[in-house]
């Protein structure tokens, strides 16, 4: 656990040390009475581990509950509400927007013991408790000839509950849709400790819970749709002398009828970071590298689609390398999967944005963000899911030496580039605490008021994950 | 327009004659001042046409506005709010749950003049105002090699706004998803006359609006996802000596890996009604008729999938007829498409339910509903989208001779069969006014309270389509 992680928040409570032992002891005692000692963590040394997610450092919780059932969650919520403390749900804490990092001392409910999973091949469904690891769903479904497509980068550790709370995406999502598209039914516990079981029905409350980052309710179980895996996959890498040509190639391929299952982009700085790390022979001079998979039931169709992409890349001035074997395809994808460790060698910390812009605006957006990076003291790299226009500009910095406010300011200016080009703040990581201040730029005041109204309706006490998504009130008028 | 249509509602206002001229004249004058005379209907003879949808008869509106732009909708909403009267949105009024039929005299906003439509092939998107006819989207997209898949039965007349308000489905939805799955962005006008433009982002307010039947806001425009049409389609019809065998065949085919694009079921009464009408040579003795399409990019795969369905049908005791040509396929589908006119010959009116049950429960559900029909004075026929377990039990009756309360009571008992078997009330038609009383059986009181909270947050005055979806308060505790 890195104590250098940085709280990018305006909420001063988050930077306070864990509150005095009194409140913590009383809450832990209540919880232990309700749940037994095995499910409650009350020692400071244990609680300290539940302060952070993969990008943000928060407040030390007063107590941590490790529920094993929905009933345990109900008991924990009721105890926290009786004590008047906030409640933050937590999966694997691999999120990239601070969604699982508490901003105030309170109760953290960590779902990692709720791992019941069943596969129903005849209905092509899985029923998974919130703590089931994402990859485990596909592992259990595969013997039945089925998979669960959503593939966020952390899918080997992330949980279904966390994925749904953030409505996580991944490379497969261009063709197959995001986590929420696979939810047939949802169980959640509300702020009052009531259990709700919802299908995707009129007044799609389940859909509202998905992506609400634990601010409207705590997701305890989901019924997930499964699909048969594609029988064939083919891969190519292309590189381009400039970003516009890469974006043009993608638009051209899609217009020609290709629906690649993955369409990933890396800018020059990103490619060089990976090349420094792995020495794969990547084109260091290319302004844009594109990685593409096509997949499907029929090999001819899959190859035809890859050919459409190849022709579009060449027509746009790109240089194409087609993987001859599955092994070569896996090698090409290793470059993309190694972005995170490669960046970690440059600076210990990064601010990872998640903007989505119209694909036609991508060349301008990439150029403007690079200019912002060049004018700043921080390295800025860009990569992402170009098929959706989902870009991850990353600001690399060292919190021991560099100014957190300057990082936050640069992140804000990057967000404004996206908004100016008709984009949005989050494609798959959520808003969390990290980008909530930028919501005022992204959402008009009337819609913000409507979102606040919905929040008040479902969480009247405001106990659920306070300080996330919605900016502080009274400032945006 | 049929004046025999029946108001199946507990709201007495709906049965009152149009309210006295005074309120109507004042509202029409305000609206005419704001919008000009061409966009306002104030004569009683004109207003009478806006009382009903395809299944329900409501209250005569005080005034009708035919907006041509979002600004017109804003002006109309503000005038209605100033006058303190309710506001009901209306597309083609082809809905089957009373969603567009006003229950109290007020303002009806009819979107049929908001027909601006543009296709963006490079983004595979259409931007459609609320009044665009569903089929028009595919007609405009097809020259670009794209289609808009949602195909509710009325798609030749229904509008995008109405489809989204009800989150309409259709036969294609088993493979391709319902209307809401194709929405990338949404514009709506709220109860206060504010315009909101939403993408499918965190706090998926757009998703909440979809399927909320005009009770949370008025959808004015949507950005819709388009897909390339399947290159090949193949069709078969199978019939079975009992319903269980048909449901089993469907489960077997899906488990074997087939993903048919359409999977339609008709029970014996339904088949005989169609046969009486069209004399197509349908199997009158079969307890269940199944109609199946498979489609895709690759003819071999499409034929393989149809073969999997055929084998599953035979293994379950069915008799299969495979269409040799596209013309024969079209002929087979004519049977399913003629259900509505065929039923109209038996009784002038029908109560059309829209339950969804687990497919494994389908044989019991069909049997129990048939028993309820047999014990009642009304013919009951059943058909629907069996792939999703979406069944449409229809109670046929003559409102001039038969007791509306007995129809409502039978409809309620049919809804309870679905709920008892783990089903829900609406797959694609919405709840409207017709099934709102049954919501108390379908949704627990805590979730009903949450839905009411959301309604109050987005429509504090309660002006938007009052009396729909949510049952009257104070009864369910």
Automatic annotation (TrEMBL), chains A, B:
Listed cofactors: FAD
Domain of life of the native organism: Bacteria
InterPro entries in the cross-refs: FAD-bd_oxidored_4_C, FAD-bd_PCMH, FAD-bd_PCMH-like_sf, FAD-bd_PCMH_sub1, FAD-bd_PCMH_sub2, FAD-linked_Oxase-like_C, FAD-linked_OxidoTrans_Type4, Oxid_FAD_bind_N
GO MF entries: FAD binding; oxidoreductase activity
UniProt key word Cell membrane: no
All copies of domain FAD-binding PCMH-type, residue ranges: 57-229
SUPFAM superfamilies: FAD-binding/transporter-associated domain-like, FAD-linked oxidases, C-terminal domain
Pfam families hit by this protein: FAD-oxidase_C, FAD_binding_4
Keywords assigned by UniProt, alphabetized: FAD, Flavoprotein, Oxidoreductase
Residue runs in coiled coils: none
Assigned protein family: Belongs to the FAD-binding oxidoreductase/transferase type 4 family.
Record's protein name: 2-hydroxy-acid oxidase
Source species: Deinococcus soli
